[in-house]
Amino acid sequence: MSKFLDRASEFLAHRKGLLPIIGLLLILVNLLIQFIAPGSFLAASNLLLHLGLVVAIFGLMLAWAL
C-alpha cells in the first residue's frame, strides 16, 4: 500500500489538474446521461455527479497539498 501511495503521489505531483478534470468530465457525462437515458439508474441516482464532485474536490485538495 505504501509503494502504491508513493507512486500515485509522484504521478499526480506532475499532473496536478488531472483529477479535477476527470471529476468535471464525470459531471458532464452525468449531464449527458440525464438527456440520453432519463429513466436509468445512473440518471435517477446521479451517481456520476456525486462521484465526479468527490473526485474533483479530492483532486483540488491533493493539488494544493503537493
Low-confidence region ranges: none
How many whole angstroms does the radius of gyration measure?
14 Å
Give me the secondary-structure category.
mainly alpha
What's the quaternary structure here?
A: single chain
How many H/I helical runs? 4
Number of strands: 0
Q: What general outline do the C-alpha atoms trace?
A: elongated
The mean pLDDT is 88
Distance between the termini: 19 Å
Instruction: Work out the count of structural domains.
Output: 1
Helix content: over 70%
Characterise the protein shown here:
The radius of gyration is 14 Å and the shape is elongated. The chain starts with a helix and ends with a helix. α2 packs antiparallel against α4. Helix content is 85%, strand content 0%. It has 4 helices and no strands. The chain has 66 residues and is mainly alpha-helical. The protein has one domain.
SSE order and pairing:
Blueprint lengths: L1 H13 L3 H19 L4 H5 L1 H19 L1
Helix pairs in contact: 2-4
